[in-house]
Design brief:
Oligomer: single chain
Structural class: alpha+beta
Order of helices and strands: HHEEHEEEH
Distance between the termini: 92 Å
Organism: Carlito syrichta
GO molecular function, one term: zinc ion binding
Number of helices: 4
CATH architecture: 2-Layer Sandwich
CATH topology: Herpes Virus-1
Keywords: Metal-binding, Zinc, Zinc-finger
Largest sheet: 3 strands, antiparallel
Helix content: 10-25%
CATH superfamily: Zinc/RING finger domain, C3HC4 (zinc finger)
Protein name: LOW QUALITY PROTEIN: RING finger protein 224
Number of domains: 1
Shape: rod-shaped
Radius of gyration: 27 Å
Length: 165
């Protein structure tokens, strides 16, 4: 490691952590760009659905997509890292346009969700509503895998019911 690298500075995250402080290892941006294809076709930036700071995919827990007042979206973990005090007020400076967003009383977790990104993540995680789900067995009862012997005409007598009249 070189003496002037950012990883050696006091207060900087260890090299094994992403810039947002999560435990996901940072991705190699050159490999990401190569995987996305030529810049003219898909763009050289992060894929839709991932944070432009740490390149982590948005999820439904620590990397929720949070929208700043300027309209730019970052994961909640990175927004927490951007939150800085200035003149007795906490501000979140946007790393893309530098517009400052006042930090809500509850912190970065109280910023608005980027609803489009959130719903896209949620749709990936949940089965579609139109598709039937396999029925869940009732608690305490075994799953029925065979028809009971008394109900099959080839296996035994059938129950007799009185004729309806």
């Amino acid at each position: 490691m070189r003496a002037g690298s950012a990883a050696g500075r006091p207060g900087s995250p260890p090299p094994s952590l992403a810039p947002c402080g999560c435990t996901q290892p940072p991705r190699d941006r050159a490999q990401d760009a190569a995987a996305r294809g030529p810049p003219g076709l898909r763009g050289g930036g992060p894929r839709r659905g991932e944070c432009v700071i740490c390149y982590s995919a948005y999820d439904l827990s620590g990397h929720l997509p949070r929208r700043l007042y300027c309209g730019h979206t970052f994961c909640q973990a990175c927004v927490r890292q951007l939150d800085t005090p200035a003149q007795e007020q906490r501000w979140i400076p946007c790393p893309q346009c530098r517009q400052s967003t006042p930090t809500p009383r509850g912190g970065a977790a109280m910023l608005d969700l980027d609803l489009a990104a959130f719903l896209a993540v949620k749709a990936e995680r949940e089965p579609a509503r139109g598709q039937p789900r396999p029925p869940a067995p009732l608690k305490g009862s075994p799953a029925v895998t065979e028809q009971p012997a008394g109900l099959c005409p080839t296996l035994g007598p059938q129950p007799r019911f009185p004729p309806s009249g």
